[in-house]
Write a structure and sequence with these properties.
By secondary structure, the chain is of the alpha/beta class. It contains 9 helices and 5 strands.
Length: 204
């Protein structure tokens, strides 16, 4: 059994961070690959929500989703929030898995306690359980930002999902930040460095 862990919303200017963990065996993972599972950023929202439902209702899949709000990110810092969320998933899922695979290049120091952790760059393209976690985290993030968009339509959150796109930043300059913005994420660097906007556009 493999526990895959991934996040969504790490680089957003608004809304929560979501970290998800999915546990299943390789045979079950193959079922999801046959359904069209891949890195969540390469799936349409409709397909993500379809796969999310399949993951949550499959009898052979265990899953965990941890949410860290914009306020928590502002008060604790993004890195601390990521570590706490991953730690919570490990505490709940470690007994179910003999392998733990985390997307990215850091285990947040948790590999000292959990020796079976492996970090994998672009893991959501290589490990099905990480891709499944990616789908869950992104679906939760999408749903959150659609709800917030209904309250603050000017920021385009239904399209940019809280990332620092041109429309989003222009709305912040004109209207200011909402209570759901991460006030610790300054706009200054993004306004002075258009390349950051290009990178964030590709993350949506």
């Amino acid at each position: 059994m493999t526990l895959g862990i991934d996040e969504a919303g790490r680089g957003c200017l608004a809304g929560s961070l979501f970290v998800a963990g999915v546990v299943c065996d390789d045979q079950t993972a193959l079922e999801f690959l046959s359904m069209g599972l891949k890195d969540s950023k390469k799936l349409s929202p409709k397909k993500r929500f379809f796969l999310e439902d399949k993951i949550k209702t499959h009898g052979e899949v265990g899953f965990f989703v941890v949410q860290k709000s914009a306020n928590e990110i502002d008060s604790l810092g993004l890195g601390v929030c990521l570590k706490l969320a991953v730690q919570e998933i490990l505490e709940n899922g470690r007994s179910l898995a003999n392998e733990i695979k985390i997307d990215g290049n850091t285990a947040f120091g948790l590999n000292k306690r959990y020796s079976n952790i492996e970090t994998i760059i672009k893991g959501d393209e290589k490990i099905a359980q990480i891709a499944m976690a990616s789908v869950l985290a992104k679906a939760f993030k999408d749903r959150e930002m659609l709800k917030l968009h209904a309250l603050f339509k000017e920021y385009g959150w239904d399209k940019n999902c809280g990332y620092g796109t041109k429309q989003h930043i222009e709305a912040m300059i004109k209207l200011g930040a909402t209570p759901f913005h991460r006030h610790s994420f300054t706009l200054k660097n993004r306004l002075l460095n258009p390349k950051l906007l290009d990178v964030e556009q590709r993350l949506i």
